[in-house]
């Protein structure tokens, strides 16, 4: 009997080496900085609906996210081409903590403000080109269990993180249409559901980190073709409060996200920071 | 005497975390005397739901000490604190006062946008004590005064000096960077 057990252990050990190598290779491929982006035909093409997902942590995270988005849509002025037109994103998904009414309210107020701003482009379109515009688009606010409560030590969070992870996975895959549909150049207008988010924008709360991890897991396992759709570009903006050192979320995500942006020059990866951190000015 | 203008100090502990040490330091006879010495007429305190009991206890003690500074307080304002911070701005019947805030990034941004001299006090009980760095950096760049709970009166004196030097946020030359829109456009793959 001992012989078989030994043989089994040795075989398992020998198989685990190439298996580990394959898993690590797959992970590196998933997190590659050069993964392709989709080809777009025009900015607000009704046949290529765009989808932005934003995670609002509570308190300062929400305040910074809203301040950042407000500055982007209002500056230099709502009419100029350098300001962000909120309607460039046909659908916006806001993810908030399940007991965070304040963030849900702030999201709603921002949506109402931003979709009513009229850019110069839209003014010039007029009625003639209305068919190329999909209007103010739509948004929804979704709730997830918190990954970590304020004051909770990160070491005690595995259960809360797991609950949050499952909720994030289900939000990302909710209503996602199958691969063969997404592979079409023009999605038929009557298709139900939508594609994975084009961009996932997070700015530091644990819930945001878990959302990014869920999107990486989806791409790792190529669930419903997540790896081949070239979506879910992850955009991490480090908190403005982090001047000399990345936050815990930043340290975890710095090597995983497509873009990691810091708001103080000392954190730029070329100088001292880890991973892919870039300084592109302050956003708030 | 009755025609003297108001001068309001607005204190906020934020909406997310409690900061009882700041409330205790501010609603104390010694700090109220320091306020009175600088001709302040009112200290308005936003103490959060958790700070209600503490504030009530301290406010009644402060009234009996009789410094001449009116003390008012409230727990939260769901519509935001901008309105309350602006009470500290100068106007027809008010001299410019001061905003004393916990060093949360959202609160600091709101306070800097009002243009009123701001004292930021880091709350040391938060994850990795993350409020210290921002307070230090902004004080070094002369946007705010960094205060400690142990020496609020000293911070008040430094805020008076800051009054002449207040700088605007966001900084004027910040338009040279890509901005969030630039990054989003890059990630979406728009070629225009």
UniProtKB/TrEMBL annotation, chain A:
GO terms for biological process: dolichol-linked oligosaccharide biosynthetic process. Gene3D superfamilies: Glycogen Phosphorylase B. GO terms for cellular component: nuclear membrane; UDP-N-acetylglucosamine transferase complex. InterPro entries: Oligosacch_biosynth_Alg14. Keywords: Endoplasmic reticulum, Membrane, Transmembrane, Transmembrane helix. Pfam families: Alg14. GO terms for molecular function: N-acetylglucosaminyldiphosphodolichol N-acetylglucosaminyltransferase activity. Heterodimer with ALG13 to form a functional enzyme. Belongs to the ALG14 family. Involved in protein N-glycosylation. Essential for the second step of the dolichol-linked oligosaccharide pathway. Anchors the catalytic subunit ALG13 to the ER. This is UDP-N-acetylglucosamine transferase subunit ALG14. It comes from Cryoendolithus antarcticus. The lineage of its organism: Eukaryota, Fungi, Dikarya, Ascomycota, Pezizomycotina. The gene is ALG14.
From TrEMBL, chain B:
GO terms for cellular component: UDP-N-acetylglucosamine transferase complex. It is found in: Endoplasmic reticulum. InterPro entries: Glyco_trans_28_C, UDP-GlcNAc_transferase. Keywords: Endoplasmic reticulum, Glycosyltransferase, Transferase. The keyword Glycosyltransferase applies. GO terms for molecular function: N-acetylglucosaminyldiphosphodolichol N-acetylglucosaminyltransferase activity. It catalyses: an N-acetyl-alpha-D-glucosaminyl-diphospho-di-trans,poly-cis-dolichol + UDP-N-acetyl-alpha-D-glucosamine = an N,N'-diacetylchitobiosyl-diphospho-di-trans,poly-cis-dolichol + UDP + H(+). Residues 11-161 form the Glycosyl transferase family 28 C-terminal domain. Its EC number is 2.4.1.141. It holds the Pfam family Glyco_tran_28_C. It comes from the Eukaryota. Belongs to the glycosyltransferase 28 family. Heterodimer with ALG14 to form a functional enzyme. Involved in protein N-glycosylation. Essential for the second step of the dolichol-linked oligosaccharide pathway. This is UDP-N-acetylglucosamine transferase subunit ALG13.
């Amino acid at each position: 009997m001992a012989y078989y057990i030994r043989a089994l252990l040795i075989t398992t050990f020998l198989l685990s080496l190439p298996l580990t190598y394959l898993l690590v290779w797959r992970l590196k491929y998933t997190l590659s900085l050069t993964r392709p982006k989709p080809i777009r035909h025009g900015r607000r093409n009704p046949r290529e609906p765009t989808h932005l997902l934003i995670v609002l942590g509570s308190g300062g995270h929400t305040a910074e996210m809203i301040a950042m988005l407000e500055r982007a849509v209002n500056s230099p002025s709502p009419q100029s081409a350098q300001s962000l037109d909120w309607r460039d994103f046909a659908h916006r998904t806001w993810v908030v903590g399940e007991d965070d009414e304040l963030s849900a309210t702030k999201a709603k107020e921002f949506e109402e403000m931003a979709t009513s701003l009229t850019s110069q482009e839209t003014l010039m379109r007029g009625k003639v080109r209305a068919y190329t515009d999909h209007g103010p688009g739509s948004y929804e606010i979704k709730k997830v269990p918190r990954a970590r409560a304020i004051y909770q030590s990160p070491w005690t969070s595995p259960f809360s993180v797991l609950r949050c992870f499952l909720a994030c996975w289900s939000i990302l895959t909710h209503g996602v249409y199958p691969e063969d549909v997404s592979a079409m150049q023009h999605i038929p207008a009557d298709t139900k559901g939508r594609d994975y988010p084009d961009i996932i924008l997070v700015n530091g709360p644990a819930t945001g980190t878990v959302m990014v991890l869920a999107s990486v897991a989806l791409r790792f396992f190529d669930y419903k073709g997540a790896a081949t759709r070239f979506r879910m570009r992850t955009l991490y903006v480090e908190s403005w409060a982090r001047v000399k050192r990345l936050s815990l979320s930043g340290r975890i995500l710095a090597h995983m996200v497509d873009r990691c942006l810091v708001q103080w020059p000392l954190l730029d990866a070329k100088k001292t920071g880890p991973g892919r951190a870039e300084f592109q000015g302050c956003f708030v | 005497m009755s025609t003297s203008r108001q001068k309001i100090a607005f204190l906020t502990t934020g909406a997310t975390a409690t900061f009882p040490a700041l409330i205790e330091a501010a609603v104390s006879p010694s700090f109220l005397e320091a306020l009175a010495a600088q001709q302040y007429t009112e200290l308005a305190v936003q103490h959060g739901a958790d700070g209600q009991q503490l504030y009530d206890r301290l406010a009644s003690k402060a009234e009996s000490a009789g410094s001449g500074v009116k003390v008012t307080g409230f727990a939260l304002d769901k519509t935001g604190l901008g309105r309350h911070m602006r009470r500290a701005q100068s106007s027809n019947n008010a001299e410019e006062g001061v905003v004393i805030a916990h060093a949360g990034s959202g609160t600091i941004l709101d306070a800097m946008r009002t243009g009123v001299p701001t004292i930021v006090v880091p709350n040391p009980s938060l994850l990795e004590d993350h409020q210290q760095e921002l307070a230090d950096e902004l004080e070094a760049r002369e946007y705010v005064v960094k205060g400690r709970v142990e020496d609020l009166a000293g911070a008040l004196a430094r805020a008076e000096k800051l009054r002449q030097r207040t700088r605007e946020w966001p900084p004027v030359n910040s338009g040279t960077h890509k901005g969030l829109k630039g990054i989003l456009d890059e990630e979406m793959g728009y070629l225009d």
